[in-house]
Structures are given as structure tokens and as C-alpha cells.
Amino acid sequence: MPVPTQKPVKKPPANVRKSGGKLTAANAEAKLAKLGLRTDMDLVLHLPMRYEDETQVFTIADACLRGGQTWQVEGVVTKNEIGFKPRRQLLVHIADETGDIQLRFMNFYGSQVKQLAEGTRIRARGEVKHGFFGAEMVHPVYKVINEGAPLPASLTPVYPSGEGLPQYILRRAITDAMKRVDWTDTLPAELVRRMHLSDFEPAVRLLHYPTPEVDEHALMDRSHPAWTRVKFDELLAQQLSLKRAQQARRSKGAAALKKVGQLSKAFQAALPFKLTNAQQRVLDEIRADLRQQYPMQRLLQGDVGAGKTVVAALAAAQAIDSGYQAALMAPTEILADQHFRKIAAWMEPLGVKVVWLTGSLKKKEKTLATELVESGEARLVIGTHALIQDTVRFENLGLVIVDEQHRFGVGQRLTLRNKGNEGAIPHQLMMSATPIPRTLAMTYYADLEVSVIDELPPGRTPIVTRAIDQNRRDEVVARVHAAAQEGRQVYWVCPLIEESEALQLQTATETHQLLAEALPDLNVGLVHGRLKPAEKQAIMDAFSANEMQVLVATTVIEVGVDVPNASLMVIEHAERFGLSQLHQLRGRVGRGSAASVCLLLYQSPLGQIAKQRLMTMRETTDGFEIARRDLEIRGPGEFLGSRQSGQAMLRFADLETDGWLVDQARDTAHALLHDPGSAEIVETHLERWLGGREEFLKV
Q1: Which pick of 91, 185, 617, 669 has the fewest CB atoms within 10 Å?
Q2: How many separate domains does the chain show?
Q3: pLDDT per residue over 289-318, tens digit each?
Q4: Whole-model pTM?
């Protein structure tokens, strides 16, 4: 089967005009490229988001009688004037043999006034409204035509577009590309037949230009067989690419970390608790991977408080036992410090040198730390993004652990992975406290092995969650006081206001002041992102030591903070937070034996999405169920965080409704990759759907 070449987009005609000026060929090409439309096949696969029915014309009388909907009418301009009350606007009257209607344009150009001169015949499409001066359409879509001009035979596609790129330019570019492109089906006919799929060319042509008799509802909700074919092809390309990336990694060399020796055994024996069955199962999976001579690429996921850190530390112990260094990178200094204190307390009594490396270290401290890392004296290095700086060199890095991996970009993870010795890639263990729904794991994480800690350590008490209107704030303050009098500690989290960090800080500062005044007998602390690391740490230490009863905080405490005595969490303006963040914040309590409560303070009235989020938080503490609902609400783009910066997102398939297709695409990809005779099919399909973007999927 020949590999279809990706032809570059031909330049649109230079004389194309847009409202208010000229859109040159170079401009149009740049705007198309900004949408990712660089080749003919890119254009052909740029599918409509909706359709307009321009296949029928209604009489003006009919349209005015029915009103309230979108109608297309045709008539001759009888009057054209610029009005100035209540503001400058263009008023155009058109008439046919049954009546007349006014077209009103609030924003218009001089060229439109000339274009819509009296005596001009036009077709206008818009919603008919009955105003003070009779029936009218406000800002209708219109075109100048000759009498008897034929109507379109198919629905008119409306494409996702960018600023300054009119639909007619996109339509023309796509129509032209469809004449030039190689339509050869990338899938074997037998596979298409066996899976009851539509053929590629008819499916795509129908989606661009559906005839009026096609079920418009099936087109819009993307359940039409033509959509099924496109979605399957897209999912198959993604599965092929990620699985092939996984195969490529396995062909590369890595140090086989075979020894579970003295350190690992002493470490596990010294722990004041026994690993849960889930922790032990996951540890066994990781240990088996580390013994291989190809690099491990494993995602360790578990709910808040499931005990991922101790599993990661035991993996690091295996690397150290085997004569290699390990590195743990966390996204924030608070989280990195939490790991450092916990793991150093476990490791250093066993003779392991653990080094702390972060951007806030003084130059002298940083120099000493990097020397210890380069000499190999430091066997475990824990820190933030500082680990990936050029000045940090390892003697023999064998294992990289990345916590909250979705908070790092692809480039950052790749830089750390490349710090291994030449010819060997370190094993990589990524951790996430945001559980990933099955369909998401099967698509976006298809290149990874996934381990799940699916049980909490014994002794953890369930957290009761309540949603409370801001009007009952005084009751909440009284509840905080009562908890502190009983010897418990309290977090009070202020909202994340994305528009302004300064505003967020002000909110936290004001809340701290109000609580300090309302609770004069308690020590109320404040921690936020603008504090220096040393100040931040001093406050956290005071809270951990129970010298402070209430801690007002911004979301810097979202992950990693572990104070077992804290049993009450108040989240102010909870409607401003996402589900994943609410779940992470709630996980800061319930870490000890005391009954714990999370109060979600909200501001009425609530929007529909905010209602769904708060209801979910009240109904369940199961991170996987929360993640599933979060995916429903937000979609995969937001859910994945920084991973998307290195990955082509799914444009057509929907993970909630198309899970069955994900299964089929995965099985088909597996079969094609394990059949030597299908190599050309794989290449052809990937070229069509990813067209050179495949390298982004390989981290």
C-alpha cells in the first residue's frame, strides 16, 4: 500500500478580502498554520463542529409568521440607511412578493453599505424577532446572489476557526484540499469489513457535506457511522503511536537494578507499620520492572493518603542496593521538603546520604549539594525543578521518581531522564494522587505500565463532608473554635483566584486577620506562596508541632502536608475549585485516628457545574469515582494537566461515550504491531493522523 504524502496547503487566492481590510495569501496561510492546518490532509481532517441548513428558502411572510427560529429568506433590498438611535447601526430592508423584513447590523463597514445597495438581491439567514418596528433579523449571515441562483445541495459546514479567519476561507481551502488529497484507505479492507466500519473517503466527505436527508441529530452528537470511522482511526493512531513509543523504549538499555539487599530489608523492617496488601503488590510490580535491562516507565497512582511515598522510597532503596543513585523530583518546595524529611528520617539512620536540592538554597549550600551528587556520595537526591539544571550531574543515576507528574511538562521530565550515564536511560517511576479513570489510562497513558494502590492504610477514619452557605460563616467559626478547644487542629483554605495572585494573597491575609480577631485565644497562622521558603517551613513546623491551632492557607498545602492531628478542613469559596483540588485539599485531614470533617463554604447562587462538584464531594470520598466524574465535567484536556503539552489531544473521540471504541482500537493496535506484515499499514496510518507529530508522544 503506498504511503500517502502530506502535501503542503496551497496558498489561498491573494485577492481574498475580509471585513475591514485585505486578508493576504501569506496571512491566510499563517492563520491556517496557527490552527495546525499545514497540509492537505490536515485540512481534510479539520471536521465541522456544526452545520447550517441553507438548502431551503422560506418566504418572508412564512418566516415572520413562524418567528423565534433561524430561517433563510431571499429578497431584494428596498431601503438602506444608517440610523443613530440608540446607537450607530445599518438598517437594510428586503422584500419578496409576500412581505418585507428589516436586517439590522450594529457593527458594519463602509463596504457593506455599498454592497447592500437598493436593488441588490440577497439571501439572509438568521433568527426572526418581532421588534418595535416589525419583524427583523439582527446580524444575519447573508450573501449577494443573482436571481435564480441554485441552493446548496448539502448542509453548510461550520468549522472551528481562529481570529480573522472567515468560514468561507476555511471552506474553500478544505474543498480545494479534498480535490488534491490521496484518499487511499489506510486500513485493510478486511479489517474495515470485520469491524463494520464505513470506508474512509465516503465517511469524511459526508461529514464535510452531509445531504439534507442525513440524520442531523446523529451528526451533531457524533453517533453517525461516519463519525465512528473517524473516531476509530484517531484512537488507533494514538494507540499505535504510544505503544510503538513503549516498544522503542524497551529496545534501549537501562541498568538492571537486580539487588533487593541489606538496605531494602533493613528499611522495611524498621518501618513502624506493615505495608498494606496493595502497597506490597505494587512494590513487587516495580521491583520486577527495575530488574529488567530496559527502562521502566511506570505510573504509580493511589488515592490521597494511600501510602505512595513509602513505596517510592523502597524502589529507591533497590536502586541504591544495586549500586546506583536515585532522584525524586516534586513540583513544590513544600511537597519536596515533606518527602525529604520523611525519607531522610527513614534512610539516614541506615547509612544512606540523602541530599536536598532546591532553588532557594544559598549558593554555597547548592554548590556543596551538587558536589555530593556528582561524586556519588549522595545516593538519594530529593528536590524541585532544581534537579534538572545543567549544573546538576549524577555519578550513576539509576532511578528517577517524579511526584505529581502531571504538574511537570514533558520537557522537564525528559531533561531529568537524560541525566543518566551515556548509553543507559534511568528507570522512571511517576506518581499521581489524582486517580486516572480507566478509559483515560488506556488512551493517554497507553505507553505506561500502571500500578494502583487501591486501599488505604488501616486506622484512617472516613472524612465527613458538608456544603455550607457563606451566610452561615459565624457557625463555621464557632465550629473551628470548638475543635481547637478539644485539642484538634484546623486548616482554613482560601480560594484560588486565577485572575490575580495578589487578590488571592489579599483574601488569605484578610481571612487570617478576621479569624485572629474572632478567635483571640487561639494561635492562627498564615501560609501562602509569596513567603520565603524558610518562613513557609517555620510556619509548617509550628503547625506540625501543634504550636498553632488554625492555619490559614492558599493552595500551597494542596499536596504533601501530613499533620495527623488536623481533623477539620474549611475550604472557602469551594465553588471556585476543581474537583481534583477539592479532593486533594480534603485529603490533608483524616490522616490520624480522630473523626475528620471537611466544610465546603460556598457563595450562592451556584452554577450547574459548581453544584455537580459540591454534590460529588458530599457523596463520595473515593478518588477514582471523583476522577471519573471530574472527567465527565471537565473533559480530558484539563484533566491531564501538563502531559498535554507533549501530546496531541483527541479531537473527535469522547472518552465517556466511546470507551468501547478505545478497547477496539487498543486491540487492533496490538495486533498490527505484532504482525511483521503490517509495518506499512502502521506507517501509513500514523503519517495520515499524526503527520510528523509523533515524536511528542515519546516521553
Answers
A1: 91
A2: 4
A3: 999 998 898 989 887 778 889 999 999 999
A4: 0.67
